[in-house]
Amino acid sequence: MSKQTEYIAVILLVLLLAFAGGTARFRPAGAEPRQSASPAETAAPSVTAPAATEPPAEPEPTPTPTPPPTPEPTQAPEYYSLHFVGDCTLACNSYYQGGPLGYDTVVGDDYAYPFAKTIQYFENDDFSFANLEVALTESTAAADKTFLFKTHAEYAQVMSEGSIEFVSLANNHVLDFGQQGYDDTKAAVEAAGIAYAGRDEWTIYQTPRGLKIGVYAVSFGTATQIKNGVRAVREAGADFVIAALHWGDEGSYQINADQLACGHAAVDAGADFVYGSHPHTLQPIERYNGVEIVYSMGNWTFGGNTNPRDKDTLIYGMTLAQYPDGHVEVADTEIIPCASSGVEDGNNFQPVPYVRGSEGYDRVLSKLDGSFEGQNLTISYSYGPNE
Q1: Distance separating alpha carbons of residues 332 and 79, to the nearest angstrom
Q2: Cα–Cα distance list, 100 to 107, 123, 155, 347 (Å)
Q3: Cβ distance 202 to 215 under 8 Å?
Q4: Domains by residue range for the chain, with CATH
Q5: Full-prediction pTM beyond 0.90?
Q6: Which of 24, 233, 263, 352 has its CA 20 to 30 A from that of 362?
């Protein structure tokens, strides 16, 4: 067949196929026939969705902070007013009794007289304290000593008229007339409505508003006695503990070693205040471990001398705060300088406050702060117009 004839035959074949509706596809030799795609494969491509996940959790609600509890209103403490004075010797020595200078003559039966110029400090307080240095007795069984002090039982009213609630009987004169005189003295103060602590004894006094004041008293006690006594009254339930210590050297403005040791022992055992008596002079006040020790309060209404050379004395004031939990603190203290007599030359047995800034006022303060430079007094044991 000629090339022309072959050409014509191919054309005819193509036309025939076209009329039959077929479509010719050309593929290179040796190529694998393409597999027909499924309808799914020929569909329009789609974006693959991410793997399904849990919906995001709702955030935990922020807890509302619990407000702190509303504090209970702080209750104010209860305040109590206390005052202390020194030796109250409500009699003169028998040498002067019945004479114009004697205590019994000057005071007579006016039992309010000795405190008349100072009653304003005591009449409205909660507790007032003194050292009662006299036997209130009719006993005649006198001790063998130079100075003996006794008077009638009615003179306990000097204390009650002066608004003194408590006295110490731990001193060297309550036994001037023996055990009978001592027993009579205790009965007399009880009859006058006055509480007391005797020699090496303790007592708890409850004020009308409920404060329990414990007092341990001793005359020339040892450190061991004092510790035991203070601990006993503390353990008995006292809110505030006073150690009333009779000690020291008569006429001295200095503290001796025994006073120092015993005063510190009292505080170490739990005393909240130490009250000192006996020297008949003022001595320095020491603050030891937060507690004040008044080593000597001096004389107050003092019949033992018709014209003392040293009339300086004081009222020691104290304000206590008792908190709702029961504990007690010293909130404030006050020094009121006084003279034991309202007359300079002599003794009218009626203490009076010094004028602020006066010589006497400043002298009292100097004795209490230890800056006083005067000589110690020499106590005479002989009788005379001024002794």
Answers
A1: 10
A2: 11, 30, 18, 11
A3: yes
A4: 78-369 (3.60.21.10)
A5: no
A6: 263
